[in-house]
Structures are given as C-alpha cells and as structure tokens.
Specification:
The chain is mostly helical. Among the domains are: 102 residues, no CATH class; 94 residues. 73% of the residues lie in helices and 0% in strands. It is globular and about 80 Å long. The chain starts with a helix and ends with a helix. 39% of the residues are buried.
Amino acid sequence: MNIFKSIVKLIVQIFFVIFFFSTLQAKNLDKFKEGSYISDYFSGILLLNDNQYDESYSFLKKLGGLEESHLDYSSKYLYSLVNLGKFNEAFNYSKKLENRKLGNFESDLIIGVYYLKNNNHNLAQKYFLKLKNRKSKSVLNIFVSNSLLNWLSFKSLDLKNAQKKINVKNSKFQNLNIIQNVFLHCFYNSQKTEFFFEELVLNQKIDFSRYNYFYAAYLSNIGKIEQAKKVINSSLKLYPRNLLLNQYKLDLNKGKHTNNFNCQNLSSIIAEIFYITANALSSQNIYTFSNFYLNLSKYLNNDFYHFDTLLAENFYKTDDFVQAKKIYKEMSKQGEAFFWYSAKQNAKILIKQDKKEKALKLINNTYEKLSKKNIYQTFDYAKFLKNNEQFEDSIKLYTKIIKKIKKDHPLYPKAKDGRGVAYERIGEWQKAEKDLLSSLDASPDQAYVINYLAYSWIEKGVKIEQSLKMLEKANNLKSNDPYIIDSLGWALFKLKRYKDAKYYLQSAVELMPSDPIVNDHYGDVLWKNGNKIQARYYWSYVLNLEDTEEDLKNNIKNKLILGL
C-alpha cells in the first residue's frame, strides 16, 4: 500500500513539473531552473493539498514574482493565506495582483469580501461583478459569483424582483433556493418571514435542522423569546442531536437571548452562503477549498462559532489532529453542549493516537462535569466505553437508558444493541442474544445488528439456515458492505455450499484486503474448493498482518501443517 502511495505521489509530481514548465513564459524560465525554486513550488503545492497551511505558506511566500508567469501560483498562495486567517495579507496581495493586471477569481472574491466586511457595499458589488464577468466554467464559481452579486443588488430592488433573481435553475441548488427565499423575506423585513421559516423547518424531506436555529434566532432578535423557545423545543424532538439547537436551548433557558446570526445583516447571510459552499466541498472530500470558504465565512461573521465545527471536522478527516484539537479547545468555551461535543471529538483523536487511558479519563471527567446529563449524552458515553472495551461500565449506562425510555424511542434499539454487544464480549451470550433480538424487534431493518446476531449464531454452530436468510436481508439493506458479505459467505461455507461461499468471500477479500478474519475465511473456502496452494498463501498472509490475534495465528499455523 505504501509503495502504491509513493507511485501515485511520484506521478503527481511529474505532472506538476510538466504543467509548471508548460505554463512558464520563456523570459522567466531561467530563474526557476534552480532546483530550490522548483522544490519550493512543489513543496508548497503538495503541502497545501495536504492542508498543511503554515508549511505551504512558508514555501510559497519565497516565490514572489512567479505570478507574472504562472497564474495558478497566485491562487494557491491566496488559499494558503486565507486558510491561515491572514485575511489582511490576502487582501493586500490581491490588490497587488489587480494593480499588475494579474487578478483572478480568488483575488476579486477576497477584495469584494473585504469591502463587504467594511460595509462598503458599492465597492463590494464592483468586485462581485468582476467575478461574474470572468465567465468561469466552474459550476461552483458561477453559483458563488451570481449569489454574491444578487445579494448586493437587493438594496435597490423590491422583494418581488429580488425573488426572481435568487431562483437558481440548476437542480443541484434547489434546496438553496428555499433557504435563500427565507433569508430574503427576513432581509426585507417581510410580514411573511415567519410563514416561510415555518414552511422550511416543517419540510422533513431534507435535513434543515440548522435552519431551525436560524428561525429561533430570528424570533429572539424581534423579541419573541417564548416563541423562540417553542421552536427550539419542537425542533429538538425531530433533531435531538443537533448541536446548535441544544446549545441555544441552554442559552435561552439561562436568559441569554443574544445570537450570532442575523438574517437582516448582509454579511451574516453571505457568510452562510459560503458555509453552504464549504459544506458541499467537504462532502466531496475537497478540504482545501472547503476551508477556504469556511474562513471567508468566519471573516464575515466571526462571532458565529458554529462554523468551526465543520472546520475542525475537515482537519480531523485529514488527520491534522493538532489543528482540530485547537479548534475543539476554543469551541468547548461556548457552552455545555459544545463542551461535551468537543470532549467527544478530542477523545476520538486520543484513541487514534493510541492514548486510550487518556481518552477514557477525558470523557469520564467531562461527563461528570455536565450539570444536567441528558439521555443522549449518557448514550454517547456508554457507546464510547463499549467501543473501548469497558464493557461492564457500558452495560450499566445502557441499562440506565433502557429503564428510562419506551420501546418506540429512537435510542431504544441502539441501546439494546449496544448492551447486547457488550454482553457478548464478556461472554454472557444469553443476555446478549435477548438484547440483540429485542433491538431487531423494535427496529427490524438494522443491517449491522442483523449481521452481528447472525454471525454470532454461525460461530456457535446454531440457526445457520436462519442466519443465512437474515444475512441475505442485511445484504439487500447494505449492499457492498464487506463485513456483511463475509458473514454471508461464511454462512454458506458452514452449510457446505463451497462454490457459492467462494463467490462472496472473494468479494469480501477484494473489499477488505487487510482484514485477518476475512482472509482466513477465504483461505478456508479455497481449500474446500480444491485450491490448496492458494489457500496456504492466504493463511500465510494472515500471519503477517499486524491486526491478527494470537488465537487466530495459532489456528492458522495448525492449518498450514494439517490443512482442513
């Protein structure tokens, strides 16, 4: 796998070299023939793509003058500046590009946002018009430029004509049309604002939970505190895990009516549009660009700390735990809901860093500090303990939850499943089986619970035909899941349907090539199908895998000698 990554990295570097020299003008070529300049450029770009902005910035900063011949350089440099929060430096550099007639989409965007932040709407509009006139082929750039220009033009338009402008024809942005329409009515202080907010938050086809908060914030801004509380309470019934809603409820109950979003403020609205853009990019694993738009959001509305949840998540997904932890530390100061959320995320990071004891201590201490422990926080705690082999303690918490809730509660099947797994891991199978069956009785279409129960039966040599039928259902519910496919193949193996089993176990190995158990299963089925040399190869391979447990190693050593 490491060799593969190295090859890919080499190919990328070769591509950069070819592209780099093909775009340089001959008059500037001599300067960059020096190895140090080429090295700095590629180091800067690769580090930027790896979201290491400090390091990227230090390399790219050395290459002043490169923008004259390599326009892509200035865009990359601006990304590094904005993602480091060096917005004033980004603005000055953008103005420098403009003066030298080297401006680009990013530089015009940054200048326009700077003027918007400083309430110079006329100049902001000028630069947003320049964005549109660049006629970018990027769907995202077109959307951003149109949205910005539209919102800057609304002060000179009535509500009716403004509504015509926000209707984006592209089907990908239909949900955004709905959101913008609500903000538009609020911005114009329309009497229909509450109506359109209600219409938005009652739409359960799409998760608009974030906008339940905006609705409550709007009501709070106009003095309707009790109505804001009602919105929050009803919203939490639909979205009990929503971080913004939970924290705002705590704030309102403490008499804190201030909020950090105002839909009658142009900067706040455009900050939210940038957030939506960033969220879309993050969902596509395009983290550098996502962080770019997130930092633009933060610049326009730095008081709205919830932007940081996505920013921290982006760093977490790219294994930049140092940056993620910094953000979580600041978020923890924003209230008890954020305090718990930040602790959970930091604990996950500690687990990834092989600091299990420290993680357990953190999550335990944080849970004990919570003034009012709600059922979802207790569930989070129980799940964390279970996932980190603190099975008896997790059972106590799951039991506490189960006693408090009814069968129709959304946490009931999850708590039953969690406790069932914990019981199974400490060897209390009868209790485990009862809980797993109870979980499926409450919610029959849980593919992973089906898989866990069925595989447990197979390993015990009981109810194999029933397990097979259950696993076929699980496979239909979660197609291409390697664990379910492996279990399905293993059930067929136990039923001596070796040819059928080989098909599924081969698929499981292809999907999960480094899993010891899956490879062991595949070795077994190869042996039963007469492919004994291949079987020994896969068994030997399992012995060299880092995650192979000692019991499995001993079993395989016997199979290598005796076969099946």
